[in-house]
């Protein structure tokens, strides 16, 4: 059981913006890591784009399960995990991360933010803490 990605996005108009993300691509071959990370970023944005405000879903993409939660205020989170990782735990993690993010990062920064401009350092810690070794 493994988590590969934890992302926070903003579903704005006209497009979805990646605000912050953490990845664990260590199980992949060194030469594949960049393309795997790019795939995870693209897939997260696409799933949020296609999800309604206030919805939760789990989507199978290749050999991964992507768990998405889009809040009614447009803030969204995506966890990409293997198919064995418990769905309930993923949604609990997303609830926790999005609540904390919305308290620490001003809502004014969401529509124009990017991974380089948003200051929120907890994602790597959460990705590591929720890993099942």
From TrEMBL:
Q: What is its main location?
A: membrane
Q: Tell me the Gene Ontology biological-process terms attached to this UniProt entry.
A: endoplasmic reticulum to Golgi vesicle-mediated transport; protein transport
Q: Which Gene3D superfamilies match?
A: Longin domain (3.30.450.50)
**Cellular location(s):** Endomembrane system
Q: Give a single Pfam family match.
A: Longin
Q: Name one GO cellular component term.
A: Golgi apparatus
Q: Which UniProt keywords apply?
A: Lipoprotein, Membrane, Methylation, Palmitate, Prenylation, Protein transport, Transport
SMART domains in alphabetical order? Longin
How does the protein's chain sit in the membrane according to the entry? Lipid-anchor
For this UniProt entry, which segments traverse the membrane? none
**InterPro entries linked to this entry:** Longin-like_dom_sf, Longin_dom
Q: Which family does it belong to?
A: Belongs to the synaptobrevin family.
- Name recorded for this polypeptide: YKT6 protein
- Biological classification of the source: Eukaryota, Metazoa, Chordata, Craniata, Vertebrata
Q: Which gene encodes it?
A: Ykt6
